[in-house]
Write a structure and sequence with these properties.
The protein is of the alpha+beta class. It folds into 2 domains: about 30-190, tt1808, chain A, CATH 3.90.1570; about 200-264. Helix content is about 40%, strand content about 20%. It is built from 5 helices and 11 strands, in the order αββαβββααββββββα. The chain has helices at about 30-45, 65-70, 115-120, 120-130, 195-255, and strands at about 55, 60, 80, 90-95, 105-110, 135, 145-150, 155, 165, 170-175, 180-185. Strands 1-3-5-6-7-8 form a 6-stranded mixed β-sheet. Strands 9-10-11 form a 3-stranded antiparallel β-sheet. Strands 2-4 form a two-stranded parallel sheet. Strand 6 and strand 7 (about 145-150) form a beta hairpin. The chain is rod-shaped.
């Protein structure tokens, strides 16, 4: 038996704890699937040192017995819950998660879901979930919008000059990059995927290696030039010594002839 303190779930549920599996249909298209995975992988990479959140997508959120019986709700395409344990879950069961609902939700629009995402789901996230931030994105038309819960009502989030929308919950921007919805840091730097981060790290390592090789070549060049300068200095010193020797021999010859070389 499971009880809940959440006002949305007032009655006792005769359901085994931890046995509510997600019950979601496949994503609408490959583009929708890739977009969902992109958001999850980027956030997980950025927050790899954090263990106080749960980010997932196309996963059922169970929030009431009526919903379980009617099966009339499909989970968000992407959502983040803050202040929770970072671990794998079969589904998100609100009454097993201290009554926590998502802090931020993103729906990926399609022809078959856009009307529901803009209407029914938006109302649900506003009135029942009370999710602070709700975004939607259409990978085909690139329609992108965000809403902030203010006084119990969703109000549009204004875009900055780059067209990005700020998420207070995630402390990140969301914006379109190469026809995909991506995260951006507060200073508007693109949050990379793990692959992009690895490629960037490899490029930086190669750059460092090239700079090190260049510095080594310059050091060798400088050493060679110093050695050449030393050889030239030694040669000049020998020539001075030879000139002095010739001068000394000439002075000695003049003295043999009874002449003072200092007066000539």
């Amino acid at each position: 038996m499971v009880t809940t303190q959440d006002p949305q779930v007032p009655e006792i549920l005769s359901l085994p704890v931890g046995e509510l599996y997600s019950d979601e249909p496949p994503m609408e298209s490959d583009a929708h699937l890739r977009q969902m995975l992109l958001l999850i992988s980027c956030l997980d990479w950025l927050w790899q040192d954090r263990d106080d959140y749960f980010a997932s997508g196309n996963l059922t959120i169970y929030f009431s017995p009526k919903q379980i019986k009617s099966r009339d709700f499909r989970g968000p395409d992407f959502f983040v819950v803050l202040g929770t344990e970072r671990r794998s879950r079969k589904s998100w069961v609100v009454w097993e998660e201290e009554g926590k609902y998502p802090n931020a939700i993103v729906e990926i629009l399609s022809e078959s879901t856009a009307q529901v995402d803009r209407g029914t789901k938006k109302q649900l996230y506003q009135d029942t979930f009370r999710t602070p931030e709700y975004f939607w994105f259409d990978p085909n038309t690139l329609e992108f919008a965000g809403f902030l819960l203010i006084g119990g009502t969703y109000e549009p989030i204004s875009a900055n000059e780059a067209g990005y929308l700020w998420s207070r919950q995630l402390d990140l921007y969301l914006g379109i990059h190469e026809s995909q919805l991506r995260f951006f840091t507060p200073d508007e730097q693109l949050v990379p995927t793990p692959l992009e981060a690895a490629q960037q790290a490899q490029q930086e390592a190669q750059q460092i290696q090239q700079e090190a090789q260049q510095a080594q070549q310059e050091a060798q060049q400088a050493q060679q030039e110093a050695q050449q300068a030393q050889r030239e200095a030694q040669q000049a010193q020998r020539e001075v010594q030879q000139a002095q020797q010739r001068t000394d021999r000439l002075a000695a010859k003049l003295r043999e002839l009874g002449l003072d070389p200092n007066t000539i």
